[in-house]
Each structure stands twice: as structure tokens, then as C-alpha cells.
Amino acid sequence: MNKTINLNLEKIPNELMLMLELISVNNKEHISEGNYKNIDWDLFFQLALHHRLYPLLSIKIAKFNCPWIPSDVSKSLTTYYRNNTFQMLHLCGVMEKVSQLFAENDIRSLFLKGPILAEDLYGDISMRTCGDLDILIPLNDLQRADDLLVGLGYEKNEYIKTVLNDWKWRHHHFTYYHPNEGTKIEIHWRLNPSPSTEPAFEKLWERRRKTALVSSPTFYLGQEDLFFFLVTHGARHGWSRLRWLLDIHKMVQTDIYWQDVKRRLKKYQCDFIGGQSLILSSQLFNTILPKDIQSLVFQKNSVRLAQETIFYLEGMVNLHNAPLPKEVSKYHEKYLLSIMSFKQKVLYTLSVLHPYYMDAETLPLPKRLHFLYFPLRPFLWFWRKTRKHALP
Known about the structure:
Organism: Siminovitchia acidinfaciens
Pfam family, one: NTP_transf_5
Protein name: Renal dipeptidase
InterPro entries: NTP_transf_5 (IPR039498)
CATH class of the domain at 89-221: Alpha Beta
Distance between the termini: 53 Å
Number of helices: 18
Number of strands: 7
């Protein structure tokens, strides 16, 4: 653990601390059970699934002599690990098929995570879990990509409701699901939703890398762009799944040009988020941080945000399960504001003045009159609030 910055980890479950030690330990034949008595092994297993760490845990437990870990826990982890291997092999096939289809139709695509990320950071696709494929394409190619995916049998999840084209910046991806294959694909036109700022697609495409994982030309983000994406994505989700933080741990060990990383983080107003991720990685995974990135770590905002993130590790917080508990929802709303720069907070405040789809639901107007929602928004908001309080 980092000896200079010490986060308060007292409320983190002992089961999760054991998990972190199992993953972080190196070059040891035994792991002492002395500090891990009275372990709730059901909770241990559920945390392994929640944080998506079961592939690495399965291998670590098999490698090191841990006879005090119940055999049924080890066997269950191994079963999930094997199933994940089959899942990743399946996604490799889907990735190659979609990549080739897009290329044949002149749609440039960058794969953000999935098997490519597992191969790049872990050297083995079975070592990282993945439930879907995330693909970034230019905004202007969305309709053509939609037609191609529908042609393959995918169904679009129409959960985004929009007015005055606010979907282009309030959201950042559409979701597609194949009912027969059970495969989910997210088509991104942005790395993150507004008010975040980020490199343009053209810049990302210029710095792309080509994977050797599949035979047809398939591309993914350059190293420095990948670090930027992983940091901003993980921070936005409160690092509530340690798999995302383990990715940062692995990235620090790669041959990455840190000066370029720091410039990029500063340009897009998220250098303190970069520091947050490195502090957490150092504290939880014993990551050895290069001197080149010490300036990111020793920022007050970075330390504060790292400590705020521990809230998500003290319980099994799943931000994807709506509705969230009231306590979690309120905490996460404040947290999301805290990871914004001053400029991003200003943009977010201004975005509230832009009409929402609920305004169109409150007062339906013909599309040619949708511009009236701008002056009407305060009144429609007040009407909804009044109605809400009037209801029993």
C-alpha cells in the first residue's frame, strides 16, 4: 500500500480485503489466514461476482496454497471462470464479424473494451470478464450501423427519449441485443456523456492500434487514449466494481507515455480524476506508481475523491440496478458533481435549462413548435412539482 497517502478503509468488509490480498500477492507460496477469521464465504463469493474478479481469484487460489478456503468456494469460482472463457471466445467471434461488416460498409470502428482489452492488459482473454461489446463510431454513421445490426438480427433498446436532439450529448451510446445469441452490443458516438469533454473521433482514429486477436483488421484505442477512457469511465461509475480499477493497475505496468497522459487529462479537465484512480490502485492493489505520475497523485482533489469512492466498496453498490436505494442515489448525485471540473459544472447547469423529454410529455406540442419548450420549461417544471406534491 502507498505509505504517504492512507485512505480510511476500516468499513470495507473483511471479505473484500481478503480478496484484494489474494489478487495483489506476488511470489509467495502461502497466504496466512490469521487476519481473515470468521469470513462469510457466501459474501466473499458474491463480492467476487459483483466486482467481476472471479477469473483472477480462481487462478490465484489454485496457484497459492490456501487450504483454509472452502473447496466449494474454489470450485464455484473455477466454474464461473470457465464459463467466462467460453463467453469471451464467443465475443471474439462476434467482434470479428461486426468489425468486418462495418469495414465493408466504410464505417470506422474502435472497440473500447471486451476481449481486446483483456488481451491487451492481461495477456489472456479469459482473465477479464465482459458482458457486451462497446464500439465507438462516428456520429454520422449511427443510422447505417443501426441498419447493419438489425440486419444481423439485433434489436435496439429504445430506452432513450429525446426532444430537440438532446440525445446527442445527454447520452453516449445505443444498446442492441441479439435474442437468439444472447449478445449485447453498445454503439457509442461518445466515450462519455455530457458535460465531459474528450478527444474527437478523428484524433482517436489517428492514434488507434490494431489487434492481433482476430484475423480481420480490428482496431482499438491507443494506449494513452485507453487510459483516459478507463479513468473517466471508472470514475463516472464510482469505481463501484473493482474490475475497472484492476484495469488501471494493469495499465500502470505497461509501457505508456505518461507525459502524454498528463497533458491529455489536463486538456480535458480530469487530471484530478486520473490522480483518484492511481491513489485507489496504489492503496487497494499495491500498484507501484512511476515517478512521472506523482504530480497527479498528490492533489487535494484526487485524495478527497479517492476517499469518497470508498463508500461504493463498503457495501455491494450496483449502480446499474434501478431504482437505487435513496441513500445511494443521493450520495451518487453529489459524487458525480464532485468529479466535474468548474467548467463542466457550468455546462451541466446550463444543460438543465435545455428542454427534457418530460416537458414534451407534460405539454405535447407539434414538432415544429418544440422550440417553445425553452421559454416554457420553468413553468412546466413548476407544474410537475405542484402536481407531485398534490398527489397522495
